[in-house]
C-alpha cells in the first residue's frame, strides 16, 4: 500500500512561539497566541505573511509609517489564511495605505518573540506578518513567529522514508523558510508547498489521492480542518499547547501528543491493509 503524509509546519513539526500586537489598543500578546484562531474570529480578517528580514526591520526608524516602508521596498507578501477568498490587490491596497501602523509596531513583536525563542533554541526561523481587516481597511495586528523542530522530528521523517512513505509539507508559512526547514529535517524541497491557504491545503491533499492509496493529513489548527476533511486519515497533534475548536477534534481520526507517534499510526494503517 502506498502512503503519502502531508504535514503542517508551525505547531505541527515546529514548536512555535508568537508575539502579536493589537494596533488599535496597543496591547502586546506575547504568550504565543494562535494567529489562525485570531484570524478566524472575524470573517473579514486575513492573515498575511511578509517577506521581510527581521534583522533589517530593526534598523528602520521606529516612527516611520509601516505602510510607507512596505511600499518603498515593494514587499512580497502571501495570503496565508482567512475565511474569505480574497484578491491580492485588495490586500495590497490596505498594506500600502494604512495610516496608523508604525514600524515600531512590527519591531515590538519581533523583539518580544526573539527574546522568548532565543532562550529555548540556538537556531530558529523567524516569520513576520500582519492581520488586515477588509471591513475596516486597516492593519489590525502585527505578528512575529519563530519556531524550531520538536524533538525527534528528523528521525521521524527518516523512519517514514525508510518505510517508503512520501512526506510533504503544506503550510501557510513562506516557501523560502519552509525549504530551509525541509533541508534541516530531511524533506525534499519539491515536496514543500508554502503560503498554502486552508483551501490550497485541501486541494493538495485531494490531488495526492491520485498518487497514493492512502493520504494522511497531520495538523494542529483550524486552518488544517479542510485538509483533514479531504484526507483519508487525519491526525491532530496537540503537542503545541493551545485551545482548539471542537470541530477540529471531532474530525481527527487520531489525536496525538507527540509528533513521533505518526510512525506508529502509519505502521497500523499498513497492518490493517495487509
Automatic annotation (TrEMBL):
The keyword Translocase applies. Pfam families: Hydrolase. Keywords: Translocase. Signal peptide: none annotated. One of its GO terms (cellular component) is membrane. GO terms for biological process: copper ion homeostasis. GO terms for molecular function: ATP binding; ATP hydrolysis activity; copper ion binding; P-type divalent copper transporter activity. NCBIfam families: ATPase_P-type. This is Haloacid dehalogenase. It comes from Methanocorpusculum parvum.
